[in-house]
Amino acid sequence: MSKHFFGDTGVLLGRSLRHITRSPDTIITTAIMPIAMMLMFVYVFGGAINIGSGTSYVNYMLPGILLITVASGIAYTAYRLFMDMQGGIFERFQSMPTARSSVLWAHVLTSLVANLVSLVVVMLVALLMGFRSSAGILAWLSVAGILILFTLALTWIAVIPGLSAKTMEGASAFSYPLIFLPFLSSAFVPTDTMPTVLRVFADNQPVTSIVNAVRALFAEQPVGNDIWIALGWCVGILVVAYAFAMNAYRRKIS
Q1: Global pTM?
Q2: Where would you find the membrane-spanning parts of this chain (predicted)?
Q3: What does the alpha-carbon distance between residue 231 and residue 251 come to, in Å, rounded to a whole number?
Q4: Are 72 and 30 in contact (CB under 8 A)?
Q5: Which of 203, 214, 224 is nearest to 59 (CA)?
Q6: Domain residues of the chain, as ranges?
Q7: Fewest CB within 10 angstroms: 10, 21, 68, 153, which?
Q8: 70-113 pLDDT, tens digit each
Q9: Which of 35, 40, 34 is nearest to 178 (CA)?
Q10: Rounded distance between C-alpha atoms, residue 120 and residue 30, angstroms
Q11: With DSSP H G I counted as helix, E B as strand and the rest as coil, what are the percentages for the chain, rounded to 5?
Q12: Do 214 and 106 form a contact (C-beta atoms < 8 A)?
């Protein structure tokens, strides 16, 4: 059964990736908005934002930009799922001897690949803008692991509206609050500069711990509890989103 699942997922993943390569503008579009934000914050607002001495602003805000990149990219996952649902692709696959969940996993893995490409593009632009890190290979692997977990968690969230939305706009509109969430965190300014109510929210939402962990890893500073809180958030969101997505999928194909 496992061989059947992996083989079917591999075939369907190849199909989805071919669609991406035929339409690379989705990856370009995903990267353009975070890059534009990065340029604006660094060159327009950066001089007016006080983050303390010894840290360049591009180094400070890059982790938040990376999370915004992922949040932007998963909208396309919901869109592609919605289009497949509307086109009857799911029913066609269900009439074949394929593993039932392989269709969803193919979309999820496609999202992971596409978002990783977008993240690399954003990182390259950040390097051109002056981002520097002396982090070792273990720290970089830790950052990659956190970003992969975060991408998987948000992608499974995207699966839910992709399966249940009534319109194409509704399928992708869910990503807007996720894109906005980093602005209410430590991504762009320290939370201690915020009003009390906003600071309490910012300090206790998932993006802040993830941003703080990635920022500390890039700077080779102690990560403290942030990395465990970040991993807890990512895994928790992933498990809950996966459960709801599979439930929505079973209702759709039943």
Answers
A1: 0.87
A2: 27-49, 61-82, 103-131, 137-159, 227-249
A3: 30
A4: yes
A5: 214
A6: 2-253
A7: 21
A8: 998 888 888 888 887 777 666 665 655 555 667 788 888 888 88
A9: 34
A10: 12
A11: 80, 0, 20
A12: no
Written as six digits, the tokens of 142 are 């830790």
Least Cα distance to 235 among 160, 152, 112 occurs for 152
The residues near 212 (Cβ < 8 Å, ≥ 6 apart) are 186, 223, 226, 230
188 to each of 85, 158, 202, 241, how far by Cα in Å? 38, 25, 12, 27
Inter-CA distances, 143 with 66, 93, 186, 193, 204, Å = 11, 36, 17, 26, 21
Give the three-state DSSP class for 206: helix
CA 245 and chain centroid, separation: 17
The pLDDT tens digits of the residues spanning 135-189 come to 999 999 999 999 999 999 999 999 998 888 788 777 778 788 888 999 999 999 9
Question: CA 170, CA 174: separation in Å to the nearest integer?
Answer: 7
Q: Are 111 and 155 in contact (CB under 8 A)?
A: yes
Extract the tokens encoding 216: 């500390």
